[in-house]
Amino acid sequence: MLSRVFGFGRRPFDSLSEQEILALAISSEEDDARIYRAYADGLEKDFPHSAKVFEGMAGEEDGHRAALIELHRKRFGERIPLIRREHVKGYYERKPDWLVRPLGIDKVRGQAEDMERQAHLFYVEAAKRTSDASTRKLLGDLAAAEQGHETLAQKLEQEHVPGAVRSEEAATERRQFILTYVQPGLAGLMDGSVSTLAPIFAAAFATQDTWQTFLVGLSASVGAGISMGFTEAAHDDGKLSGRGSPLKRGLSSGIMTALGGLGHALPYLIPNFWTATTVAAIVVFFELWAIAFIQNRYMETPFLRAAFQVVLGGALVFAAGVLIGNA
User: Per-residue pLDDT averaged across 157-176, rounded?
Assistant: First the structure.
């Protein structure tokens, strides 16, 4: 681990021979082609047209690798030294984003642009360190090709991802984001903010003890968060509904549930009862406003209707807590 962080045991780029530079370029092109195909595989289900773009990019990298291997064969023979990115100090690395599912289409496009920019810089520096004319020419051509990949990507996108398809893919990605994160998180925030109003304010008015009220609020919020998180993760694995990873949905729901309750529990760390209660009431107002805003922003619920529903439900639960606490 330390060797990866501090570069212990790695070769400086300046120490590489021309043969080793060619070997590094070959392995890098091979890795990039695999990454592009992994992107294509990850996008195939939800974004089939964009998947074809990355298949085309992978084919381009295969062509580069073949040209580099042929040059190595002519100059140094059949045996290619084993040297990879992780063996060279300061050499760029590829983050394993292609292993994460589902893949975000905009993030993947951004990663591809970074890959091509890094490869271009590598070939520019590699060409400076070679004296053989044919090698220098090939590396220069590859640098230009990598720099021109943005044009290639645009051409492939125009071919496989016209405007209507791109809009459709953007809508699909937004829908997946809402199903995986927003919807479970919103349900959790509503449950945590509204359902904990009664026990917290009932405890507050029954005891008028801020510390005891805080403990009630803390236990209610954490307990509700754990319950909602496990319920969301367990009741749907996402395979048939298309709602995405149960772990991500469970975390979104559980965390937002706990935060929703803690928002108006934390003010009871203030020793003065009426000050704490006033601050908690103000926090409740902002929590309910946030719920209405999210419903309007992502669920396309009219803001006034969302606000009325949330405020009405919150007011009823709040009143129940106050009445029970004063009983």
Answer: 60
Q: Enumerate the CATH 1.20.1260.10 domain ranges in the chain, comma separated.
A: 2-161
**Whole-angstrom Cα distance, residue 17 to residue 126?**
10
Q: Which of 45, 23, 279 is nearest to 169 (CA)?
A: 45
Alpha-helix residue ranges (DSSP H) falling in the chain: 2-6, 18-43, 48-76, 105-128, 133-147, 149-160, 163-177, 183-190, 197-207, 210-235, 246-263, 273-298, 303-326
- Residue 138 C-beta-side C-alpha neighbours within 13 Å: 22
| 11 DSSP β-pair partners | 88
- The rounded Cα 1 to chain-centroid distance in angstroms is 24
pTM of the predicted protein model: 0.52
Count of Cβ atoms closer than 10 Å to residue 256 Cβ: 26
pLDDT in tens, 127-158: 887 888 888 888 888 887 776 665 555 555 55
The CATH homologous superfamily for domain 2-161 is Ferritin, core subunit, four-helix bundle (1.20.1260.10)
CA–CA separation, 191 and 175 (whole Å): 22
